[in-house]
Amino acid sequence: MKRGLSVPDPPDLEFRPLVVIELAKDTKEETKEWLVKKIMDKKKDGGCQLLIKPLAMPKEDENIYLVGGSTKRLLLGAEAVGLVKECIDGSMKPFLYSNHKEYKDWIEDGETFLSMAECQYIIKYELDNLRSREEKNIPGYSNSKLYPGKSILRRLQTSRIMIQVFPLHDKEELKRLRYQWYLKVRLDFQPIDQIRNYFGDTLGLYFGFLEYFTMALMPMAFLGIPYYFFAWEDYDKYVIFATFNLVWSTVILEVWKRLSSTMTYRWGTLITKRQFEEPRPGFHGVLGVNPVTGRKEPVYSSLKRQLRIYLVSVPFVCGSLYLAIYVMMIYFDLENWAIAYNQEQQSTLSGLVLYVPSILYAIVIEIMNRIYKFAAIVLTSWENHRLESSYQNHLVLKVLVFNIVNCFASLFYIAFVMCDMKLLRQSLATLLITSQILNQFVESLLPYWLQKRSNQKIKKKVKAMNVDTDYTLVEQIHVEKDMDTYMGTFDDYLELFLLFGYVSLFSCVYPLAAIFAVLNNITEMYSDALKMCRVFKRPFSQPSASIGVWMGMST
After folding, report:
1. 3-state DSSP assignment of residue 279
2. Contacts by 86-92 with C-beta closer than 8 Å and gap 24+?
3. Most buried residue among 39, 41, 261, 430 by CB atoms closer than 10 A?
4. pLDDT category, 89, cuts 50, 70, 90?
5. Strand, coil or helix: 68
6. Closest Cα to residue 91, out of 81, 104, 101, 79?
7. By the 8 A CB rule, do 23 and 38 touch?
8. Rounded to the nearest 5°, which phi and psi values hold at 296?
């Protein structure tokens, strides 16, 4: 592999653009020249040995660069990242360039062996591992310090010299995927393998879980329809359905573990070796030496981090929980007022007023959840966790604790303190319907409408330019660079987690909850597909062997 990487690619070689780098408009020329040279340098000289060229557009676009790689370079990169591919005999093995003929789908020189998403992942991996050697700072920026082993890309991003790095869409492949996924009206499963091939394992697993969860809800939905029309005062019915819920919730999670293992083995990520986890970009501290790697990197006292967690984060979470309970009690005061008003007026209008407190409370819950999540992100970043996995675990824990109390506390209070089954059914139905409508509007419909308007303005702007290069590519880059960045599956899994809680905990008193959950998941499939294809930038593919921390939280 080293011999292959020592052969430089011709600097004037035409290549397929895979990744876009956008620098700040005031970036100095010496910085640009240094970065381009580092990306094109040989691996033995500390470079990436990738291909890079400017977009070659008017002055306002002179800070946009296109990155790609030769076929051999990307294949050697696939070996470096430990990409697992299927062999001719059906087994799954880490890719070795020297044994390339043993692998299925290898044709001639292997130009089509890797998918576009895999090539983009390899380029991102190489850029992330572009490290400083002897440089003390970024050329032209004396305050942007470097030290041996420091990631250059992360320093450029934290110094706000580099605005963004994103992978380009494959317009033809995306068009085919959109048709198979959500434009073609049919009763069929989602094209999970095609989704995974285009967007990566993380999103493939998410949409696979969403589809599986929807199918798993079907027995609950079908059983809930006749069960709903039984005598509601029969408390034995609650016990029977609650027992069924308990068995159902346990079985579907165990079955999913097997199904996800089957999928990830077929995709090659189940046996992928876990890479050494680098410090996250936002981690800061005093420069020291990592005792494991021997490299210089920031070091931060774990005692200081624990003090921040227990003296600031924990009191903040407790105060937020108190606020959620306080808002809940205000809701019950409004419920009592609405009931009293209806008993006094006995009119159609007063009957509708009965639903107003529940609707308002459902809206307030959504608003509080979003505000708290923003505060939790800021607080978890301030705790200064070294690893991304640790950061995610603390963030998920904070958000889950608040969401569970904020969403479920009123239902438990109605069920076990007030013992009002009628009010419990009304509150649960209102929470489910209102939250589903709000989420679909805020997460998909509104962003799609805004993005559509933005695209029209960008296309008019590009047409007015004096374009010397491929017009369609220039238009594509301008449209995609202004798209929102997809922040991951956190919010999507959180929504499914809460929905699972509503169904497994409370559908025994309101069996129609499973039906509402099925309807929500079906619309979620289409709305999520729409926003991934039309609203957000294409995310970098990330190898995943499971749905991560959410599996543990569900069990």
Report:
1. strand
2. 86/268, 92/265, 92/268, 92/271
3. 39
4. confident
5. strand
6. 104
7. no
8. -75, 135
Token look-up 């979470």 returns 317
Tokens for 39? 């990306």
Q: Which amino acid is at 166?
A: F
Residue 267 has pLDDT above 80, yes or no: yes
Is the Cα torsion angle 322, 323, 328, 329 positive or negative in sign?
positive
Dihedral sign, Cα of residue 465, residue 468, residue 472, residue 474: negative
- Which tens digits make up the pLDDT trace of 331-358? 999 988 988 888 888 887 877 888 888 8
Which residue reads 């989420």 in tokens?
A: 439
- Collapsed DSSP state (helix, strand, coil) of residue 252: helix
> Do the beta carbons of residue 484 and residue 402 sit within 8 Å?
no
DSSP 448-489: HHHHHHHHHHHHHHHHTS---S-HHHHHHHHHHHTSBPP--S
Q: Which residue has the tokens 């097997």?
A: 258
Q: Give the count of beta carbons closer than 10 Å to the beta carbon of residue 406.
A: 23
- Note the pLDDT tens digit of each residue in 409-443: 999 999 888 888 888 888 888 888 888 888 888 87
What's the angle, vertex CA 394, arms to CA 391 and CA 395, rounded to 5?
A: 80
Per-residue buried b or exposed e for 349-381, using 16+ beta carbons within 10 Å of the residue's own CB: ebeebeeebbeebbebbbebbeebbebbbebbe
Q: How many CA atoms lie within 13 A of 423 on its CB side?
A: 22
* Residue listed under structure tokens 């505000």: 371
Cα separation, 67 vs 257, in Å, equals 38
Please tell me what DSSP assigns to residue 354: T
Judge contact between 21 and 31, C-beta under 8 A.
no
DSSP state of 114: S
Strands 51-54 and 19-23: unpaired
- For residues 501-511, give the mean pLDDT: 86
Cα–Cα distance measured from residue 411 to residue 197, given in angstroms and rounded to the nearest whole number: 42
Q: What is the pTM of this model?
A: 0.87
Write out the two tokens for 230: 């039984």
Alpha-carbon span 246 to 273, nearest angstrom: 36
Half-sphere exposure of 375 (CA within 13 A, CB side): 16
Residue 31 to residue 24: CA distance in whole angstroms = 11
CA-based radius of gyration for the chain? 27
Query: Measuring CA to CA, how many Å separate 35 from each of 9, 60, 123, 245, 261?
Result: 17, 19, 15, 58, 41
Q: Is 92 helix (H, G, I), strand (E, B) or coil?
A: strand
